Each structure stands twice: as C-alpha cells, then as structure tokens.
C-alpha cells in the first residue's frame, strides 16, 4: 500500500497516531477502549487522535516551547520603570519625602558629634522610617499635632535629647530607634528633676566631657 505524503509524515512524526488512524479506517465503529486495547496505546492518546488533535493542542500542532528564565528588561539603563531619567517633578517629589529631610538633619548632627560623614545602608534608612513612626506615635499620645511638619520639627529635638555616651559612640538611626524609649525616658527624668543653676552647668559640662570621650574612644 502506497502512503500519501501526509500519511508518510504522520508515520514518521507520530507512529501511534498513524496506527490509530489506520485502525479507524478499517474499523470505523471501534470504541476508544477497544482501539486502546488492540493497539496497546493509552486511551488519552486515542481520544486526542479521534478529536483531531494528535499532538495535544487545539489545532493539532506541537505546543510552543516556553522561554526559560526571566525575560531581561530592555531600555532601562537608568533603572527606572520606563528606562528614562526621572523628571524634575519626580525628583522634587523624592526630595520632599520626610525621610529625605530627616536624613539631612541626621547627617548634620552626626557631623557635629563625630566630625565624619555617615554611611547610609538599607537598614539605616528603614530605621529612619521607624523613628518617624515612633515620633508620630509620641505626638499622638500627647494630643499634639502629628503632621509631617510636626514630626520633622520634633526630630532635631530628639537628637539633642541623646546624652547616653554609649549611644553617642555608636550613633546611628538603628541605635536611636532601638533605644527610642530609653532616650525619651532619660530626657523626661532630667527635665522633671529640680536642679540649681550650678548643677545644670555641671551636668552640661559632664555631658560634654562624656560626649568628647565617646568620640575619642570611637576614633581609637
């Protein structure tokens, strides 16, 4: 028996499909179960062939290969979503973020205390956000204004409240955030305790000496 071109291609590409087609031609009323048992071919394969999709797809063609791995983003040399440089408006919005202002304030304070520039990491930036939330909570609990401007205005005061030599020696947003309650408690204790002018002066001199020693120890 001479095979047609289509049958020859089917025999080469899918021998089981060819056998099923040939069996159906000889026994058109045979059931899927009968064909499966007679040819030792799975029922699912027989069913696909009878439904006209021998390769398991809607149109009988092979399934397209899916690309492996993550498709690389193109056209984003500057790391933005659309590959463009941030606009002036976007830059202004970024600079107006509360954490940006707090970062500038902390940089100035750190420079005053240590005489050095502070290196910012993702951990420290997150700590700055945590401090923002804690100041907001403190202002709310005192029934005071707790808007962005109020929080930014309170942040320098928080830094000035720090008197613990250890905190000053290990000064960072992460340390301030972890010691936030202690800093506030210490400040309230000092403010409530009655002091004479001489005692206040001596305390200020003592704090200055402790701060200087902490800085010197940190440099060593």
From TrEMBL:
Residues 90-99 have a biased composition (Basic and acidic residues). Residues 57-99 are annotated as: Disordered. Residues 79-89 have a biased composition (Polar residues). This is Uncharacterized protein. It comes from Porphyromonas catoniae F0037.
